[in-house]
Amino acid sequence: MSTIVKGASLVAFAALALAAQSARASDGAEGRALSVESKTVTITDPLLAPFMKLPIISQISLAPDGRHAAAVALNPARDNSAVLMIDTETLATRMIVQPRPWKVNGYMAYVRRPRTVHWLDAEHIAVNFTVADGAIFGLDGTPGNDLMEGYLHPLRDATGKPTDWHIVIRDRAHMTFAAVNVRTNDDKPYEVDLPDDLVDWATDRAGDIRAARTGNTSAWSDHSTLTTWYRADMKSKWQKVDERSVTADSFRVIAVSQQPGHLVVQAYNGGDRLAIWDYEVATHAFGALMAGHPTEDVVAQNFDATAADSGEPSDVVTDGLRTHHYWFDEHYARLQAALDASLPDHVNALVGGSADHVLVYSYSDVDPGRWFALDANTMKMKEIAQRWPAIDPDRMQPVQALRYPSFDGSSVPAYLTLPGKPTKPAPMIVLIHGGPQARDRWEFDPEVQILAAHGYAVFQPQFRGSTGFGRHFEEAGYGQWGLAMQDDITAGVRWLIDKKIADPQRICIIGASYGGYAALWGLEKTPDLYKCGVSLAGVTDLERKLRDQSDMADDPVAREIVRHQMGDAYVNGAALEDVSPIKHADRIVVPVLIAHGERDVRVPISHGTRMRDALQDLHKDVQWLYFPKEGHGLALVEDQQTYYEAVFALLERTIGKGEPPFPVAAQAPTAVSSTGQ
Asked: Of 157, 387, 500, 618, which has the most beta carbons under 10 Å away?
């Protein structure tokens, strides 16, 4: 069992029995249908059809009395959303807040879409919209007062109970705040008044903002600093606590401690793993370890119901190959242990509600996720919603978490998904995550499951440079695009070949963004290893990466961070050219698919078109997919279908069809609405 260190003691939670009563929501829904633009897409591949019925629910919030839950329902294909009110007793649902046109001077300017929902009391919710504003609504959708440019959180009294006063954003562009009385609609300025740009902040037990970080970039260079501030109370002046470069080993304030002059921070503090520490403002020094783990990062959560007791983390999460939740509150520790016993092989999180009525979110590698309402007094639980109803967990493939040795002896974490129980080496897809300072997780991944459903093993190496596996492992990837980072990928593939898991003659590499870069570079650096490659929105020219028309090239902070992590094109341009796919297109000897969206501002489409042209000029086997409405990825159902049809056509002619883990029944083409229904 994983353990978590709190101070000097080991904390492990024993399992308790939980009488779980699961009731699935009915297929029908009461009330009005969501009125949005939709398009019917015909899916001819029966294995692909369930995944094209997109997720419906993005967020749920449970009322303090547990009687209702408010959900943000998505139409991701058309970028629309609405708020549903769910009766947790009957599971009846009705739509109470719809997207609405927003006019300026009488002309249609944009559509205001619900983004997040928060309970103010048992009868009222606050809804934040995509266009920087918020408003109050009743249980039936009756509109109440506006909440300026977005709701944040309540202010609390001496007992920790929320008051009628809540903090809202007055001006998002300049990050100014106001206090609003949600009963009377009175408001007053809520002064933060710090120099430079506000980056993030932390509150005390009362909900007051008493710690913050600001950012500043010097006028004549891309050198940016982060400054941490603290004030002893709301009448005191801000004190500068810390100032350092954005690329330095910094820390983030989690909460203002109830001990005067102390903060609760998340930091490495010279170590290799993130942990939770006490920090003394007067001495500018770290104090006692509050929560840590010897081999995994620890991240503070601070569950809503215990926010009044902040000053020490109420709960933490270890973020290794598998996620585990730990509580330092006896009541919630018992609930967590009971949940984990009742819902095994899942990540179970207490995500909202109150001490008596708790909202639970549970997911796994094969389950996209579902929400439960838990009565902590009776220990009875009811399922109130599913994130992705079209997905049948029993037909999904389990994801293994593992480690393998790289060429230099480094231990590299990874995930492996097999199609059923293959009796011989399987055709394999090497699926590379973006970032590269990012990571995959043990969770439901639709792309992984789509590939596995078609009979392909899926390998996801978490090469050095990936986040979440220690600071040293991440930093070992700095300056290693195409070098040690790529070697880690290659080592993993060869390891799986040696283990007789992967068929060496049937391997393809696929990725998006950085993953698209790694796919192309893998075809060039190790041309004997792969039979095909796919790059979606991939970087192809490193030397030009921060001089193109991307959003990162336009942002001085992003430029500095990327230079620190990838390398400086002005100093090491030749070295970056040496590992740029665009410069070595002649090395590609197998078929390749390149896909890109016209509206991509993270990796401009020129990266894709120039690579396409270079391959075509060399008479290489290259297929080009152009998506005029897409940005950095694929959102529209019809574009996802086009992409996967091209991917599977490429796989079939290069590494052959896989053996699906379930029989494929002959059936008529499936009509799928782009609303995901």
From this structure: 387
| SS3 assignment, position 99 | coil
Cα torsion at 302, 307, 312, 313 (round to 10°)?
Answer: -10
Integer Cα distance of 478 and 491 in angstroms: 19
Cα 431 from Cα 415, distance rounded (Å): 10
Tell which CATH classification among 3.40.50.11720, 3.40.50.1820, 3.40.50.1100, 2.60.40.3080 matches the domain 400-654: 3.40.50.1820
Q: What are the pLDDT digits (tens) for 111-154?
A: 888 999 999 999 999 999 987 789 999 999 999 999 999 999 99
Q: What is the pLDDT of residues 202-228, one digit of tens each?
A: 999 899 999 999 998 875 667 889 999
Range 346-352, long-range pairs (CB < 8 A, 24+ positions): 347/322, 347/323, 347/442, 347/443, 349/325, 350/303, 350/315, 350/325, 351/303, 351/304, 352/60, 352/61, 352/62, 352/303, 352/304, 352/305
Mean local confidence (pLDDT), 573-577: 88
Q: Is 29 left (phi over 0), alpha (psi -120 to 50) or beta?
A: beta
Residue 469 CA to residue 76 CA, distance in Å, equals 31
Please give the CATH number for the structural domain made up of 4-210+220-319+328-386: 2.130.10
Quick check: 359 and 70 in contact, CB under 8 A? no
Report the percent of the chain where pLDDT is more than 90. 71
**Phi/psi at 471 (5° precision):** -60, -40
Q: Which string of DSSP letters, residue by residue, matches 233-272?
A: STTSPPEEEEEEETTS--EEEEEE-SSTTEEEEEE-TTSS
pTM, entire model? 0.90
The answer to whether the CB of 179 falls within 8 A of the CB of 190 is yes
Measured CA to CA, the distance from residue 302 to residue 312 in angstroms comes to 9
104-138 as b/e: b if 16+ CB within 10 A: eeeeeeebbbbbbbbbbeeebbbbbbbeebbbbbe
Pairing assessment for the beta strands 187-190 and 176-181 based on DSSP bridges: antiparallel
Phi, psi for 154 (deg, rounded to 5): -80, 160
Task: Summarize pLDDT for 282-325 with one digit per residue, the tens.
Answer: 999 999 999 999 999 998 765 554 444 555 678 889 989 999 99
Mean pLDDT of the chain: 88
**CA dist., res. 87 & res. 64, Å (int):** 13
Report the candidate in 60, 576, 106, 651 with the shortest Cα–Cα distance to residue 358.
60
So where are the chain's domains? Answer: 4-210+220-319+328-386, 400-654
Q: How many residues does the structure list for the chain?
A: 677
| 303 vs 415: CA distance, rounded Å | 29
d(CA 98, CA 94): 11
Q: Is the separation of the CB atoms in 508 and 430 below 8 Å?
A: yes
Question: Residues 14, 17, 21, CA angle at the centre, nearest 5°?
Answer: 140
Nearest Cα residue to 298 out of 318, 325, 323, 312: 318
